[in-house]
Amino acid sequence: MGSTHNFLDERLVKQIGLIAEPTLGFDVALGDGAMLRAEGICRGITLTILGSQFKLDLYPLALRGADLVLGTQWLQSLGPVTFDFAEMWVTFRRGGRRVRLDGIRPSPRDALQPLVGLSGPDAHSYLMQLLPLSTETTTEAGIPTDLAALLQGFADLFEEPHGLPLEREHDHHIEIVPGAEPANVRPYRYPHVQKEEISKMEHLEHLEEVLKILRGNQLKVKRSKCLWAEPKVEYLGHVISAAGVEPDQAKIHCMTEWPLPKNQKELRGFLGLTGYYRRFVEGYGKIAVPLTLLLRKGEFRWTEAVTEAFEKLKKAMTTAPVLALPDFAKPLEDRHMPGSGPSTDPEGVGSRSE
Question: Which interval of the chain is the signal sequence (predicted)?
Answer without folding.
Answer: none
